[in-house]
Amino acid sequence: xxxxxxxxxxxxxxxxxxxxxxxxxxxxxxxxxxxxxxxxxxxxxxxxxxxxxxxxxxxxxxxxxxxxxxxxxxxxxxxxxxxxxxxxxxxxxxxxxxxxxxxxxxxxxxxxxxxxxxxxxxxxxxxxxxxxxxxxxxxxx
Length: 141
What we know:
Blueprint: E1 4-10, H1 14-25, E2 30-36, H2 39-46, E3 60-63, H3 72-81, E4 90-94, H4 99-107, E5 112-115, H5 120-137
Parallel strand pairs: 1-2, 1-3, 3-4, 4-5
């Protein structure tokens, strides 16, 4: 294993959480994946509030758009307005292919937008591509 990275997965669908964890387990890197079910929990995690008082600082955030309580766009808006949190790269990982979702996400400051493939093999490949780019190639803040 080359290095140690932390990913915060903001996803309310247990099957997608499982698949994402499975994809990172196949990694040649040591990737620690933490998951929360919505934007409210994600902000608590990042601000180390309540049960997240000892949460690690993520290298990247993988963000679903469609979630209960606080959706991905609202979370992204809160995150990018926070001086402490705004430099964490956020990759939107969603089933949406809507052009408005793509444009809104980039306008709110996401670093990338990936539509979740429905095919298992393609999903695993998409996560591998995110890993290759964001955890290996790019220099993060």
